[in-house]
Write a structure and sequence with these properties.
This protein is an alpha+beta fold. The chain has two domains: about 250 residues, no CATH class; about 100 residues, no CATH class. About 60% of the residues lie in helices and about 15% in strands. The protein has a six-stranded antiparallel beta sheet, with no helix packed on it. It is elongated, with a radius of gyration of 30 Å.
């Protein structure tokens, strides 16, 4: 357990940091320099952790199994165990139980935590784009806040003060309002409702009805001048976002089962069926990983371990891509999830069981390991030949 847990934990931490760092760069590019930008970014990253954890956890388990059992095999610890009557199957029992535990954790993450975290992430994005759009405003850039379009000439974020603001509000059939002001400031509302725009020395042009561009008569508006004016920005926070469950990715596992017959407004029965199958297949696949990894890790000590580990990693990456592409095909109704996702999962399970039984309970030569070793020797000889021809060393 210790041999497997240490590389598993390291791979999990490094994988999460790499995935989150890539997303953090993109989020900072959007919010850097704005008010509370770092706190917003880290809040959004926290909501993304369950999504990336569902991807990183199986990969970390597989890598931990390869490195842990590979190290024990390289140091002849597996030989010592088997010489004392403890076979590979007995050594594998703790990590098989670890796989069951991680599968249950992944099911909880993908089935319940991810849908709520995805909804919370989308809610924060909505808040940034709508209610708090003033906080993310750029100088000289037109911004949208609900029905309002505005542009600010100069902005001082330390005091929330600005100069030369233009605001246009489209009221539909009831006309429109256009406001310009020489200066102003944003006043936070301590009650947690909408912030207020405090405007000074401005003008207001109001049209009671929508101007008719086909009419020969000019539109008549009402122009006023004001010294001070306060106007709320955005909408009340209690009503800023929709309820959870607009699409299948925001539904928990029990809700997905219910939605098979009654899908959400923006989803079809195929979308719900595909999402449900993908989550279940990913959880079931984790149970297969110990049986798949151990035969790759304990091969012949004469073979190239790095090449064998690389083949195992490529295999699991290809399998993961097949599942995701299968989910996409099922979403579009091209094929059933049974064919595009469950069949590859069944084939992987059969392949892992065949190799595991052959490695742990028989003395026959493993044809897969033999083929990998031959390919590894070919590339090794090719590399040495190239190095020798370039004059970087001598052939061995």
């Amino acid at each position: 357990m210790r041999q497997v847990s240490l590389p598993l934990a390291g791979a999990l931490v490094i994988g999460l940091l790499m995935l989150l760092a890539d997303r953090m760069v993109r989020l900072l590019d959007t919010t850097l320099g704005k008010k509370n930008s770092f706190s917003v970014v880290f809040e959004m990253l926290a909501y993304l952790v369950p999504h990336y954890l569902g991807t990183a956890l199986p990969a970390a388990l597989f890598l931990g199994l390869l490195l842990g059992f590979g190290k024990m095999s390289e140091n002849s610890e597996t030989d010592a165990f088997m010489a004392s009557g403890v076979g590979l199957n007995r050594m594998a029992r703790p990590v098989i139980l670890m796989g069951v535990l991680i599968s249950i954790i992944s099911m909880l993450i993908m089935g319940w935590i991810q849908p709520y975290a995805r909804y919370a992430y989308r809610s924060v994005v909505f808040d940034i784009q709508n209610v708090e759009v003033f906080y993310l405003a750029e100088e000289g850039v037109f911004m949208q806040a609900g029905d309002r379009t505005f542009v600010i000439d100069k902005l001082d974020r330390s005091t929330n003060a600005f100069e030369h603001v233009f605001i246009f509000e489209d009221n539909g059939a009831k006309g429109s309002d256009t406001v310009t002001a020489s200066r102003g400031s944003l006043v936070d509302n301590p009650a947690g409702q909408r912030p207020m725009l405090h405007l000074e020395d401005g003008h207001r042009l109001t049209f009671k009805t929508r101007p008719d561009v086909t009419s020969k008569e000019p539109a008549i508006g009402e122009a006023t001048k004001f010294a001070l004016a306060d106007t709320p920005l955005g909408r009340i926070s209690d009503d800023i976002f929709r309820l959870r469950g607009e699409d299948e990715r925001e539904l928990t596992l029990p809700e997905l089962f219910t939605a098979l017959k009654n899908p959400p407004p923006k989803s079809s029965p195929e979308d719900v069926s595909s999402e449900l199958s993908e989550r279940l297949v990913m959880a079931v696949s984790i149970l297969i990983l110990p049986y798949l990894a151990i035969p790759f890790a304990v091969g012949s000590r004469r073979s190239a371990r790095g090449f064998r580990t690389g083949v195992a990693l490529v295999l699991i990456v290809v399998y993961n891509e097949i599942i995701h592409q299968g989910a996409s095909l099922a979403n579009h109704g091209v094929a059933s999830p049974l064919l595009t996702m469950w069949l590859p999962c069944l084939l992987l399970a059969a392949f892992a069981a065949w190799r595991y039984i052959g490695t742990c309970f028989t003395l026959r030569n493993d044809p897969v390991s033999a083929a990998i070793d031959r390919v590894g020797e070919f590339f090794g000889n090719l590399r040495r030949s190239v190095v020798y021809r370039l004059g970087w060393g001598r052939p061995t």
